[in-house]
Amino acid sequence: MLFIGLIASVIFMESNEVASMKKYKPLERDSNITTEKAYDQVMQVLMHPRCMNCHPTDNVPKQGDERHPHYFDMARGENDKGFSATKCAACHQEENNDYSGVPGASHWALAPASMGWQGLSKTEIAKRLLNPSTNGGKSHEELVEHMTEDELVLWAWDPGIDANGQPREVPPVSEENFKIAVKKWFDEGAIIPSEK
Amino acid sequence: MEISFQINGENRSVQVEDENTPLLWVVRDVLDLKGTKFGCGKAACGACTLHVDGEAVRSCSYAVKFAKGKNIVTIEGLGTPERPHPVQQAWVEEIVPQCGYCQPGFMMATAALLSKNDHPTDEEIDANIINVCRCATYYRMRKAIHRAAELTRETNLQSTENS
Amino acid sequence: MAKKRVSRRKFLVRGALGTVGVLALGTYVFRGSIRRVIAKKLNSADAPYMGDTSTPLIWFEITDDNQIILYSPKVEMGQGTFTGLAQLAAEELEVDVSQIKVVHAPSATGNMDGFATGGSTSISALWVPLRELAATMREMLLIKAAEKWKVDRDKIRFSEGSFYLGENTMTFAEVTNGVSEWEIPDTPELKPTSEMKWVGKPVPRVDLKDKVFGAPIFGMDASLPNMLFGSVVRPSKIGSTFKNATFSEAEKMPGVIKIVLEKDFVGVVAKSYQEAENAKLAIEVEWETGEDWNTSAIKSMLTVGKGKPFTIQKEGDVEDVFESTEVIVSEYWSPIGAHAQLEPNGALAHVEEDKATIYMSTQVVKITRDEIADRLGKDKNQVNIVPTFLGGGFGRRLHTPNGIQAALMSKAVGRPVKCFFSRKEEFQNDTFRPPTHHVLKARLNDIGAIEAFEHNVSSGDVAFGSPMVPSIAEPILGADLGAWRGGMVQYGAIPNYQAVSWRIKLPFATSWWRSLGLLANTFAIESFMDELAVKTGKDPAQFRLEHIQKDDRGDRLSSVIKAVVEKSNYKDAVVKERAMGFAASTDASTPCAQVVEVSITDEEIKVHKVFCAMDPGLVVNPDQVRAQCEGAIIMGMSAALFEKMEVEKGELTPTIYGPYQMALMKHAPKEIDITLLQGSETPGAVGEPPLGPIGAAIANAVFRLTGKRLREMPLQHYLNS
């Protein structure tokens, strides 16, 4: 068992380094950001494929960084959890599976249709997020809790390896800074800045 | 480590070095139940489908540690030639298999579908049954699924009448 | 009736306690020499298979409980051959099919097919010899029964595996008791077809229960006590040659027993599958690789006009017609296809000092045995290949050298080793269906008849380069008989026609894929025929009928076309947003015509109904022939609509189902209507011919819906590009 953890961690370390060097500037821990910047960081994460892929507006989950429709025509199904014989959980377990490359986390499922974001603007996404009639009746406190503590949300920063053994890209804002940004934005009233 | 579960009605304990070993290999190579097949190892083809607590699961992507205390059913436990499951009965009646390799996975997926919906429409079959069959026996499979549904409804009706 | 009788010297009887065997040592199948094959090829559009002139041998065994075991030289890969063979044997043995158990003959029994299982030849090849053997064995048993009862054999009746004399009965097994010497009679007259009880009946598959209840019958399911698991490092890049490997880390990994380094591969042997796979990742291999190939480089290589041309068919003078008049020219393409059979290649090998036993799914038992014996430095008789049921063949297992790797690893650790491909390795190390390029030319005369027709196909190798076709045969054959399968012009009433095959050696392995060139060649030819029909304004089916010659072959083709038109009520019109598409092909003498009903919704091609009329000659098992049609139609549809391998940065991709899109349940037509005609007294090819027309039929329907002529497969991919 030991060696697998070891290998996996080596792969992750290398890959995250490579990914961050190539694509992102690592963000400094920053608690003194403006509410606009906080909003912006939250949105960068929400609109990243790791999050967006399971917030479709067409009932079809997406896969990969290029967001192709889930292979085999998997769709929302019943209760956002797939179909009787092919639930999301037929393949997606409680955690990532490094052997199959199938990602996993607690209660793996699509976001409810009312929380479909794909193709929407930042402002529209934020409105859906904040509106209790589309966000499942969540208050701001509950939203903060959901966004900073839910294992399925936090999976975005531990997305595992794909079927080819390649690490998945993580969102451009670190988990820590995302949490800071979420709290900051909600603390300051979750104001949606006007689009420029 | 030791992991215990129920499989095809029997309590079994297995010793595994690696708790993340796919359940598929424990079922095939430790418990010697070879009906559950390896097709891709990536949860793509469905040949390794079995039931965990009544739900269809692709066992190549299911760490054995998650099976602890669960109830597993494989094709060998679904039914026997003497007491076939309605799905197996229908598969025999419609003479579905060609090479046969993918068929246990399809039958397990179908059994899971029928346990929740004993009257699936063609559209529901299309959405639920997304395994891969290279001999492309889909045409007969569809017939067999409808037939199995019919047999399941008969069985359900009998058990309702008897109760 | 039976002219080619099995002569006495071709029988060998092995009597053991309570058993009798009949081993035929004849030269029945593939007796044609290479030259005769060519002669046949030049005389007709037949696609004969050639072998090394050795033969399949058949062995019966009667067990104590009166079961008859037929050791089949042909393997069962889903095509239903075991069931057909049981029917043929039951017919002459006068037993119930259920009394016959068909098993794969291990090579050590001596009965091996010198060629292979493939090419839709199993039933047609064994049609006469198997029945002759069964009849002869029945006769031997009858003679012995008469001896035991001391009566004239005419007084004895027999049925269901027993002999009857008045009140007395003796089972076949009882007859064999105590017999050490057998008299081998001349082969009796075979039953005429009209008196057959089993042939022509939809007998359920003999392997049905095993396959429905999960019996461990496949190569992947083989296991032996003390077995270990092997895994071989296989290259991702095209043209990789193994140089060396470093593996000090891998050696220390959990469960690892040994890293096996050979001249051409490195493998790991471990206690479990997963441990072997894990350790494999830690092995560093040095490959010698060539160019970084990509799809467009392959495509430009593969162009009619490049490589070696070989005229495979010539009638009249097309050049003459084309020189003087306006010519219609069209080009078509087909992509690289993967076999994608569900059971990966693999083998369980147990190599001991004086023998080696290899359990595996293979279509080429003898070739595999010889290759393994050669590499192990053992006598051929010391190597026993135990063929298992195949989790799909489709041509993928017409060369299975992976048995060598399992054997060498077993030898290295002195224990049984099971080793098989990962799915990625399957996709990257497949022996692919070669991509093709077609250039078609035609001239229509004033009354809308074809005056000249030419088909040029450029293809990677199919049969050439395969161990079944010795390279010595290549110059004699000229053209790759696999690549041009289905590539000949089947409309013999055209005054001038020719077909030319251009050979290109591709940088990756290409080989036999169910129906070989038939799918691509028919797609090109029958799409082009449709173009011509549209130009003339004639009904597409009628247009074809007008160009079919009046002979047996032509009549059979005409009959299937007429049958499918009638059955489908074929109309060249779009009705309720659905269009019908028509195409026909002739493969290995079996003509097949199909009409598909297609719509396009949300840019998706949907095939609703398929009507198929086929004339495979005498049908041994109509249910299994239908099953083959249904499967071939959907598999052909899958290839025609979706399937496509690409070459990127020197690697073949994709490497998994899904990205390699294949037809699923939702794509399968809801209605498949099959009409079987019988235009011959003997069985012909079944498993591949129905794959022919489907691609063109769909493309022809799409043209009617969109006005767009799709000239490249996969069609769904090119519909909107």
UniProtKB/TrEMBL annotation, chain A:
In terms of superkingdom, the source organism counts as: Bacteria
List the protein's name.
Answer: Isoquinoline 1-oxidoreductase subunit
InterPro entries annotated for this entry? Multihaem_cyt_sf
From TrEMBL, chain B:
Record-linked PROSITE patterns: 2FE2S_FER_1, 2FE2S_FER_2
- Superkingdom, natural source: Bacteria
Check the record and name the SUPFAM superfamilies matching this protein: 2Fe-2S ferredoxin-like, CO dehydrogenase ISP C-domain like
* Pfam families the record matches: Fer2 (PF00111), Fer2_2 (PF01799)
Tell me one GO molecular function of this protein.
2 iron, 2 sulfur cluster binding
Residue ranges of every copy of the 2Fe-2S ferredoxin-type domain listed in the record: 1-78
| Record carries keyword Metal-binding | yes
Query: Does the keyword section mention Iron?
Result: yes
Q: Which InterPro entries match?
A: 2Fe-2S-bd, 2Fe-2S-bd_dom_sf, 2Fe-2S_ferredoxin-like_sf, 2Fe-2S_ferredoxin-type, 2Fe2S_fd_BS, Beta-grasp_dom_sf, Diverse_Oxidoreductases
What keywords appear on the UniProt entry?
2Fe-2S, Iron, Iron-sulfur, Metal-binding, Oxidoreductase
UniProt cross-references to PANTHER family, sorted A to Z: BLR6218 PROTEIN (PTHR44379:SF2), OXIDOREDUCTASE WITH IRON-SULFUR SUBUNIT (PTHR44379)
Q: What is this protein called?
A: (2Fe-2S)-binding protein
UniProtKB/TrEMBL annotation, chain C:
Q: Which Pfam families match?
A: MoCoBD_1 (PF02738), MoCoBD_2 (PF20256)
Name any one GO molecular function: oxidoreductase activity
Q: Which domain of life is it from?
A: Bacteria
Domain (Aldehyde oxidase/xanthine dehydrogenase a/b hammerhead): residue spans on this chain = 213-291
Q: Which InterPro entries match?
A: Ald_Oxase/Xan_DH_a/b (IPR000674), AldOxase/xan_DH_MoCoBD1 (IPR008274), AldOxase/xan_DH_MoCoBD2 (IPR046867), AldOxase/xan_DH_Mopterin-bd_sf (IPR037165), N-heterocyclic_Hydroxylase (IPR052516), OxRdtase_Mopterin-bd_su_IorB (IPR012368), TAT_signal (IPR006311)
| Name of the protein in its database record | Xanthine dehydrogenase family protein molybdopterin-binding subunit
Q: Which organism is it from?
A: Euzebyella marina
